[in-house]
Amino acid sequence: MRAFTFFFLLLPILMMAQDLKIRDYEFVSRNKDTVQAELGTFMVPEDRSNPDSREIKISFIRFKSTNPNPGSPIVYLAGGPGGSGIQTARSVRFDLFMKLREVADVIAYDQRGTGWSNSLPSFSAMKPVDVTKPMAREVYIKSSLDNIEAMKTACKDAGATLEAYNTTENAHDIDDLRKALGEDKISIWGISYGSHLSFEYIRLFEDNIDRAVIASMEGPDHTIKLPSNTEAFINMLCERAKDNYGFEPKYPNLREKITYVHEKLKQEPAIVTFEDKNGKSKTVGFNNFELQVLMANIYLRDPWDIKKYARIYSEMYEGDYSSIAPRMLQIKQFALSRMNPMAFAMDMSSGMSAERNAQIKAERETTTYGPALSFIMYDWMNADVFPMLPDEFRKQKKNKVKALLVSGMLDGRTYVSAAKEIAKNFTNGHHVILDHAGHNLFMLSEDVQQLVVDFFAGKDVSDRKIELEPVPFE
């Protein structure tokens, strides 16, 4: 009788394992490096709250460890949301994926709705925009709401439950991967939205985690960034620009120039004619809101973007908008026409707490960019166009996960000030703050990569010092 009972307890695990399919796969990187790997797939319910939900396929690439006694598999969680772990392994972080094989199997994982795990319909809402005229925030909101409804309809018609593309379901998929692989524990490696997903996996499945490396951290209630944090980041850049790390040119009055440019555009939008790369004449019109969106989203992420920041504002201060005109044209052409259903649903379902909403509302008109770093997502959330996850999702509790937390001082996406608050909840965490590093920080130096490898290998990295060279302003 006892054996009979044990069989039925084991049956769900056996059935899950039967869903797992693995075959040999020749993995080729963007630089044509070739490595033997495995392609794995398994099935999960799209909507776990619905017993009649369809199943969707999740795909991953497994790089087998070179260690004869490997540790827990390391699962890479890409950013975005919408990034593909498999494509990341092919490109900028290929070398680090390979190095981590010294420790354990490394899994390039495509989250639901991304890459080879995407079963959502493609959606393109090509609503024509007159790029020669400035467009108010309210017009963007109205036009985008029409596009959102069309996207939701397209998903429904395809049999997809878009509301199931949320970070909680995403975290359950990861644990289903762990069970399918037959592992007691896994290690997780996440950056940006991958950090956001990591925090939810920790909240739900802390005991199933061996180690975690989490970088460029977006907390559970940080989907919409605080305008005051962006303002503090701008002020830091202005201070650094005064001396420009000892290089030339120096920008002693950058803060004043920024204020002047935005005040001027509030009074009078700009119309700029320029030649594109093919020598064709183009005209683009924009107002203060559109400049907020452009500058916050294009020029604050990493040092190689930030280095242009002071020069561009100095040019605009003199009335020269030629440097930003081509970028502005792209923003206006594609901001409303390229909607990724997975990215939209993940961000919107993460939502924001009532307290954060009130703080953003109080700060939005008194700061340089307001909430423009998130385009008009803040407005979408207040228009209640998509269901948010419950409040407990956005409340981070203390945990005991062995974690390496990594932040860049020049990360204009996920700010160090917010990361410090997150780090307080990791009782076994070590927070490394890298000066001169931005949002994409893993591949900045061999020292950063070795830090990650050594931590996953169980080495003490608490006294590790990493020095990075500054990137001066142009």
Describe the 3D structure.
This protein has helices at 2-19, 85-90, 94-100, 137-157, 167-181, 193-205, 227-243, 254-267, 288-298, 303-306, 309-317, 325-334, 341-350, 354-363, 377-382, 416-423, 446-456; strands at 21-28, 34-45, 55-63, 74-77, 106-110, 186-192, 209-217, 270-275, 281-286, 402-408, 429-434. The chain is an alpha/beta fold. The strands form 2 sheets. The chain has a 9-stranded mixed sheet, with helices on both faces. It has a two-stranded antiparallel ribbon with strand order 8-9.
> Major β-sheet, in short?
9 strands, mixed
The residue fraction in helices comes out at 40-55%
Number of helices: 17
Per the principal axes of the C-alpha atoms, what is the gross shape?
globular
Secondary-structure element string: HEEEEHHEHHEHEHHEEHHHHHHHEHEH
> Which stretches are poorly predicted, pLDDT < 50 over at least 5 residues?
1-18
Q: Report Rg.
A: 23 Å
Strand order of the largest sheet: 1-2-3-5-4-6-7-10-11
* Class inferred from helices and paired strands: alpha/beta
Keywords:
474 residues; alpha/beta; nine-stranded mixed β-sheet; two-stranded antiparallel ribbon; 17 helices; 11 strands; globular
Question: What would a concise description of this structure say?
Answer:
The chain has helices at 2-19, 85-90, 94-100, 137-157, 167-181, 193-205, 227-243, 254-267, 288-298, 303-306, 309-317, 325-334, 341-350, 354-363, 377-382, 416-423, 446-456; strands at 21-28, 34-45, 55-63, 74-77, 106-110, 186-192, 209-217, 270-275, 281-286, 402-408, 429-434.
